[in-house]
Amino acid sequence: MIKVYGQVASRAFRVLWALEEIGLEYELVDAGPQSDTVRAVSGLGKIPALEVDGAILTDSVAIMTFLADRHGALTFEAGTVERGRQDGFTERVNDEFDALLWMAARHGRILPKAHRVPEVIPSLKWEFGRNMERLAAEFEGPYLMGETMTIADILLGHCIGWATLAEFPIESEKMQAYGKALRSRDAYKAVRAKA
């Protein structure tokens, strides 16, 4: 049985969403970052962690990539041009959206107060909005890779949800509709129901 260590309101959401989309059975071990439960399986103490075949995998994108490759779902085949494009979108979302959201969270509430620089948050929001507008200009839909949903969509869908909660700008109606369509998926709703 696959075990996911983490919490729904974290990057573990992405892994759970991918598992639901693929249709795999799993157990969610509800544990927070740096908890004894998580540190017992991963020295980093970060979530999510995935236990499979007697091994522990970490990092939400690495875990989703593993699951997609193993089960031939939510991905294009390795070595194809389509997979290269998909990987490009995945890295772009990580760099241009996830990294900005994480930096804002760290400077807004996670880092010790003496190390926070909240003045950087407006700059991060501006950059996020600019990046979203550039992506919107290229986006043809219904997914990043056209007709095929991939892990890059799960990653971006999670970032759009996070951005909404953190009051980051998503002014493009096209990208708002894309986010809404992703949130309407049964797999997404199944994970939200676990919260």
Automatic annotation (TrEMBL):
Keywords annotated in UniProt: Transferase
The GST N-terminal domain, residue ranges: 1-75
MF terms in GO: transferase activity
All residue ranges annotated as the GST C-terminal domain in the record: 79-195
Name this polypeptide is given: Glutathione S-transferase
